[in-house]
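Researcher: Here's my situation. A collaborator sent me these components and asked whether they could plausibly form a single complex. I don't have experimental data yet, so a predicted model of the whole assembly would be a useful starting point for our discussion.
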Amino acid sequence: MSGKTNAVSVLDRRATRRAASRAEIVEAAWLLVREQGLAGLSMRDLGDRVGMRAQSVYSYFDSKDDIYDAMFRQGYEEQLAWMADDEGAAGGSEDPATRLRVMAHRFFAFCTSDPVRYQLLFQRTIPGFEPSSASYAVALAALEQMHAGFARAGITDPDAADLATAVLTGLTSQQIANDPGGMRWERLVDRAGTMLLREVAPHLLAKTRKPTTRVRRTP
Amino acid sequence: MSGKTNAVSVLDRRATRRAASRAEIVEAAWLLVREQGLAGLSMRDLGDRVGMRAQSVYSYFDSKDDIYDAMFRQGYEEQLAWMADDEGAAGGSEDPATRLRVMAHRFFAFCTSDPVRYQLLFQRTIPGFEPSSASYAVALAALEQMHAGFARAGITDPDAADLATAVLTGLTSQQIANDPGGMRWERLVDRAGTMLLREVAPHLLAKTRKPTTRVRRTP
DNA sequence: CTATCTTCCTGACTATGTCAGGTAAAACGA
DNA sequence: TCGTTTTACCTGACATAGTCAGGAAGATAG
């Protein structure tokens, strides 16, 4: 028994350290892209940031795109975690309109809290970069999660969901592009949610009271 | 008189040829970015495309960013031209709802007809690139033109205009990112226009008949 | 025609992504 | 503990990319 335990824990030590180094590199990459822009990431800067040569980073990642891929995956995992609390934040309320507003605010907060992450997840900034199938699967999971959230708010029709994603991404992209760090479009989130519901499910809007919809900024 | 005419026309010949070469370079840049992505533009490829060495391009433009700047300016000039016909296309109709729909379709068509242009005009794809004041002035003119178009459709409140820009850019960015060349979000443009007007100027929607809103794809 | 300006060239430099080969350290197994 | 294997880093190098410097040839002006 004790011999077996030893072998398992030692194999795990290597894997654990390697995974930690990879995570450290990805974290350093996030810091750098926030300073220099997504396409401004350089392998030499990245290596310097974690205390090794650029070429050494290649013993952890196959290519620069591989690093973007890890970041892409992590970004969508963060979205999944961030948006997973939308039921709790609504205080268990069954009111669809409130659900939608809470969800809209959460999504808005997620996107605007890290514009470069938004860029990587939702725009095609890096020529030639395509997410791996594993990372893309996480993106699809996040999209399904969004649709599930819409459905809980009474939006089940595919066209309605498309309209919803357009409105949400429009608000966030305008905020990020034209008023970074500000509130110009944030102030319109509730109104946009109401507008949307009135269009796609007006019956859900009847006699609805608007509660406070401030949500936390951290997942 | 004739001596004066001669001097003017000869100076003009040089300026004319230089301007033509610059335009040729910018046009080649558009072709290349459509093939390789906005950030994938290389000066060597660009020089090859117009029949000169990369270094020679620097006798026409100060830097790569200077070329992006010329493209940025041209892109917004194209938007100004494209959106200038929105009154004519509505057939002189005074109906605000129709105006808004026509305008929405025009903007949508402009953006989706050249995704890489959309990227340069509306996203921050190139790290460090900032438009010159001259080019930015054209962008501001295009924005004012949009606001004038909204006003003609009955949308005059700043918040309402912000909501409108969010909806329009949301539709186009979703179309470009998720269904390039398709119609998934294009099918929703009319509906989105109606939704918007119902929210910001519901009185303008009373008894409104929905005419055909197909617009031309070229300015 | 001469002088000036413009348009291109070659050569070169620094920065960047990435490959190849190798050494020292860490981990593993007996 | 020791020998072996694996891993984690290094240096050196290559091709490509943005851009500067100097210069020759062609176009233009007087």
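Model: Some features of this prediction you could bring to your collaborator: Confidence is low (pLDDT under 50) at residues 1-10, 208-212, 214-219 of chain B. Residues 14, 17-18, 21, 52-53, 55-56, 59-60 of chain B lie near DNA strand C (CB under 10 Å from a C1').
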